[in-house]
Amino acid sequence: MPLLELSGIHARYGEMAALQGVDLDLSEGETLALAGANGAGKTTLMRLLCGLMPPSRGEVRVAGICLPPGDPRAAAAAGLALVPEGRLLFDSLSVEENLMIGAGARAGRWSLKAIYDLFPVLRDKRTQPPGSLSGGQQQMVAIGRALAANPAILLCDEISLGLSPLVTREVYEALKSVQREGIALIVVDQDVSRAQAISDRVACMFQGRLTLTGPAATTTPQAMKAAFFGDAA
């Protein structure tokens, strides 16, 4: 049984169809790179998985159990945690307080100590507001906040947006450490090849539909390019 199953997912913003019949699954410990142009539906799908918006039709199941639509608490309790695009940290709180916002949804190994071991720079900056940190350090806080929930599935939306190549490498090395702990990942990144390199499978979206799914190791750039424009076979 897949850890995560999406069946016939549709979603709308008013009269606009954002997701159209999405069927997707994710196994325990698997990493999926989710690609697509701006407006393809990737962020909508991530928000829906976390209960931040309900589907208009379809079901999301985790370990065979159907999640109530539009219920963030239920999604967190089932093991879904989001690293959102733009990080969305609270500058009125310290780094450590931001990290602790994510704690409590589930028990597990991702204590503050474990997060600081993953991102040692945050230990020294734990009393500072996130706004005083570099963009890369802020992304580490966002990842740590999600890990504090001890998720079974970590959703990373535009994980390297605005980061330098050096910091992006550091973030991806941290994701590899997360993978070694058995957490499943869905990774959205404008640098599709980098996300594909750490993934087991790739999926591509176009206008709210899945146009391609396949093994990351054998899916070619040509196939990805075609899927970006809805031309995949």
Question: What do you see in this structure?
Answer:
With 233 residues, this protein is α/β, with parallel strands linked by helices. It has a single domain (30-41, 71-228), classed as 3-Layer(aba) Sandwich (Rossmann fold), CATH 3.40.50. Helix content is 33%, strand content 26%. The longest helix has 16 residues, at 165-180.
Question: What is the structure about, briefly put?
Answer:
By secondary structure, this protein is an alpha/beta fold. 33% of the residues lie in helices and 26% in strands. It has helices at residues 42-49, 72-78, 95-101, 112-118, 120-124, 135-147, 165-180, 192-197, 221-228, and strands spanning 4-13, 16-26, 31-35, 57-62, 65-66, 80-83, 153-156, 184-188, 201-206, 209-215.
Instruction: Give the averaged pLDDT, no decimals.
Output: 94
Indicate the structural class: alpha/beta
> How do the strands of the widest beta sheet line up side by side?
6-7-8-3-9-10
| Sheet with the most strands, sense and barrel status | 6 strands, mixed
Shape: globular
From the structure provided, what is the oligomeric state, counting identical versus distinct chains? Answer: single chain
Which sequence of SSEs, written as H and E, runs from N to C? Answer: EEEHEEHEHHHHEHEHEEH
Number of domains: 1
Named CATH architecture: 3-Layer(aba) Sandwich
